[in-house]
Amino acid sequence: MTDVAIVGAGYVGVPLAQVFAEAGRSVLLVERDAERVAQLNRGESYIEDVSSEVLKRLVDEQRLRATTDYDELRDADAILIALPTPLSKQREPDLSIVKAATEEIAKRLRKGHLVVLESTTYPGTTREELLPRLEASGLKVGEDFNLAFSPERVDPGREDWTTKNVPKVVGGITEACTDRAAELYGSAVDTVHRVTSPESAELTKLLENIFRSVNIALVNELAQLCERMKIDFWEVVEAAATKPFGFMSFKPGPGLGGHCIPIDPFYLTWKAREYDFYTEFIELAGKVNENMPYHCRSLISQALNHGKQRSLKGSQVLVLGVAYKPGISDMRESPALKLIELLQAAGAEISYHDPHVSELPELGLASVPLEPERFDCIAIVTDHAGIDYQALVDDGAVIVDFRNATGEKGRLSDKVWKL
Ligand SMILES: NC(=O)c1ccc[n+]([C@@H]2O[C@H](COP(=O)([O-])OP(=O)(O)OC[C@H]3O[C@@H](n4cnc5c(N)ncnc54)[C@H](O)[C@@H]3O)[C@@H](O)[C@H]2O)c1
């Protein structure tokens, strides 16, 4: 018998499995990818937030295992869904993976099951998409089985706030559903915050991500203005952050990355249209943020002009850091990909160095040693720790720093161009 089955063993599913297993629950990860299942069952973690040491211990103690077999869901008390919710090419919600998995779950649904959707999505998904599919089994929600939404708020790579200590928001279809889900999470995470419906829980997660997207767009726009005004915007952000209240610090950058911030807000934009409503802040933020790789290409071009009297075409450019944020290998939606594509299209010869990402097969590139003298320009796209940025400046390379990794003061020094 399994206490908790988690469908989808990715960035969300594996840390969640760890938290439940550490709380003494027996956990089953149901994963489509047989290679991942084999790795998990050998105690080898491919998710940086969960160490192989911890995973191996939990597997050896028979508290956690993985399978590709949906039939094993029949024996679980609770089924948590942590599957991808991407956008289509037209930037519309693509719930196909979640819907297909729900249909598979419905075939195995039995009395007493608790089903919780953790994937980020628009308000209404749990009620409109999951509920009818599950009730097609003949079982009734609130009576035979329970259904709720509880967003995952994990920030991969972060150590102070984890799946265990970030409060878990829970909203069920019925009060009994909320009770049941709150009880389950309460047995493993530090704090549970109940809301009165799955829609509130769904929108909570979107509000958090929209808040980030809009604020990042604000600083990205001001950073571009500051380039014209020759003001060091990083210095401004740092100074504003000394205000003890009423200001929250966001930093500009080469564009949004990761599975969440560039994607999730558009789930709401799409749903809002059903209500004749246009989410203009979201659209505007998307527009500003999506333009950032283009702006960064322009800065690299200017730095080459001024620093080397060269054009982009034919120049050797090293992209330093390609993961979407420091300390991790996650490449999803990384702005480095767009920037590399733009630089290559302009005729630049691109290499990259990233201690966390050994190769980029989609671009036919592999991480090269950090040998600054080989390059006309170094573009710092992701500020991983463990790189001596000051040494790069001292070496005299032409540097374009999109993360303020060098900490150089002033808008432009001879050597360092900053966003
Ligand atoms: N990554 C984050 O930082 C984060 C944070 C909060 C919320 N979320 C949300 O959580 C959800 C999951 O995201 P993630 O980052 O864990 O995704 P992920 O891609 O890391 O993991 C998803 C896993 O599901 C597996 N899978 C795909 N289809 C399957 C199927 N039909 N049956 C079983 N397994 C299947 C994949 O092989 C993969 O291992 C998304 O909605 C995401 O928006 C992600």
Radius of gyration based on Cα positions: 23 Å
Write down the overall geometry: globular
Helix content: 25-40%
Largest sheet: 8 strands, mixed
Q: Uncertain runs with pLDDT below 50, 5 residues or more?
A: none
Return the structural class.
Answer: alpha/beta
Number of helices: 12
Distance between the termini: 55 Å
Approximate strand percentage? 5-15%
Mean of residue pLDDT? 95
The molecules bound to the chains, other than polymers, are: nicotinamide-adenine-dinucleotide
Return the string of H and E elements: EHEHHEEHEHEEHEHHHHEHEEEEHEE
Number of strands: 15
| Biggest sheet strand line-up | 3-2-1-4-5-6-7-8
Task: Give structural notes.
By secondary structure, the chain is α/β, with parallel strands linked by helices. The chain is 38% helix and 14% strand. The chain has helices spanning 13-22, 34-41, 52-60, 96-108, 125-135, 175-186, 198-229, 233-240, 264-273, 280-308, 335-345, 389-395; strands at 2-7, 27-30, 64-67, 76-81, 114-117, 146-149, 168-172, 192-194, 316-320, 349-353, 359-360, 365-366, 377-380, 399-401, 416-418. The strands form 3 sheets. It has an 8-stranded mixed β-sheet, sandwiched between helices. Strands 10-9-13-14-15 form a 5-stranded parallel β-sheet, with helices on one face. A hairpin with a 4-residue loop joins strand 11 (359-360) and strand 12. The radius of gyration is 23 Å and the shape is globular. The relative contact order is 0.08. The mean pLDDT is 95. The site of nicotinamide-adenine-dinucleotide has 28 residues, from helix 4. Nicotinamide-adenine-dinucleotide is lined by residues 7-13, 30-33, 36, 82-85, 97, 100-101, 118-120, 152-154, 156, 259-260.
